[in-house]
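REQUEST ID: PR-0412
SUBMITTED BY: lab tech R.K.
PRIORITY: routine
TASK: structure prediction, single protein chain
INPUT:
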Amino acid sequence: MIKRFSSIVETLLFIAMVLGIGYASGNPAFIGVHLHPFYIIILLIASRYGYAKSLIAALIAGGTYLVFYFVRLGGVDLTGIWVNCYQPVAYVAFAMFVGLLVEVDKKKVKALNGDILHLNESLEFKQHNLDQVISLNANLSEQLTVTDKTFNIVFRETKGFYDQDIMSAYDAAYSVLSKIIKATKAFVFYLDGSELRLACPKGDHEDSKQFLQFNDARIEGLRQSHECMRLENDRDHDPLERAPLLIGPIIHRDTDTLYGILAIEEMDFLTYNENTFLTFKNLCNWLGDVLYFRLSIQQSPIANVENIHTEFDFLTDYGSSRQTIRELVETFLSEDSEEPAVVDQS
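STATUS: complete
OUTPUT:
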């Protein structure tokens, strides 16, 4: 309520101040003064409150001027009033002129504020999109770093596989499961004939036997499908069973040769995501390619260890793919008329 009538209150206070100054000069309302102080009051109210409030201030100022004019005259006399009292009409005209200018400026300011608000909203939206792109780029960079680190570890740990036991490849895979994928409990099994035997970790044979017993159906399904599985995709599992979070075949897909399985039973909750599953699948496929390469070379009568190490250094520096490994195998086997059979790993 007070804010609604604040312009009137301010007008009255300003007029009171002007009248006070006028009393000191003997002419309270400055009757007969052409450049009247009331114009300043109207200008202040118009600039502060706009068109409508400036008209009210002009009417109050004009009424005050007339009252003091008739008091000074000693009565109401309309003779010559326009000559001596044109100021009230001038107040209204001045208020209309200044008020309209102020309203135009206010509309422009309001429109500019609206444009600024719209631009700020647009900027916030674009900034949000930019933050998402930056976050996505950071995640992709992190994933690429993790994937690159994963296979670099495998490359390093299997670089000397020609003068080491073939189990070193399984050891490297287990190292990836524990160090990169952050599995707190995992198993690496190799296929010995039709039986699965524990390759890693060493010394957990009884625990691995229980794991195989609990997961006979899943392993049989994996033998048939040759596809990696996740726990949430297995709707028939019993929560009390030792169901694996991830389980996948160690397979060379070009020849459909199964060498064993990788299984993760427990892992860090924060690392169980789509990127981890993709890394796990790549590890299964890559290990199958490595085993195919190693077992094929072992059967080649022209295996040249020095050349092999040279080629493997190239793979270590620039990464590998199934196509790259397949071409390398074909290079070492080029003098054979028939492709050597893949022998039993045991």
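NOTES: Confidence is low (pLDDT under 50) at residues 335-344.
REVIEWED BY: pending
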